[in-house]
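Please produce the structure of this protein holding zinc ion.
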Amino acid sequence: MSIIKITKQFSFEMAHALRNYDGLCRNIHGHSYKMDITLAGQPLHDESSPKNGMVMDFGDLKRLVNEEIISLLDHALVLNEKNDPQLIEILKQNFEKIVVVDFQPTTENLLNYIADKLKRRLPETVKLCRVRLRETDTSYAEWEE
Ligand SMILES: [Zn+2]
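Below is the modeled complex.
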């Protein structure tokens, strides 16, 4: 049986700031991210299963990505932990969704973060093979394995 790739698209609104960056993105600003998750696997061949013919139920994939990624990052401000701790504390006291990460929150680094979280949750029957994260109409990065 052939390996089939399936892709589901997601979107979320997220703010970030790139610490020490030599351009406008050092300021707190947001993007409307578009994310494509691609899985590879063999379609289930089991007439008795409701998932017969599927690599993974798109609904199950949607639920998993919403739980792991979207609920965390949508309408969040993502900051590098190396920012002033007082600033992070004040932000946390005043806003609900402040996500502090141990990396510079670029699209490239977010991809590694997202891929790691998803790989831990996906069933063994499928393989995460690509995550594409689009930051603007003209810019995106891809994680591939
Ligand atoms: Zn940005």
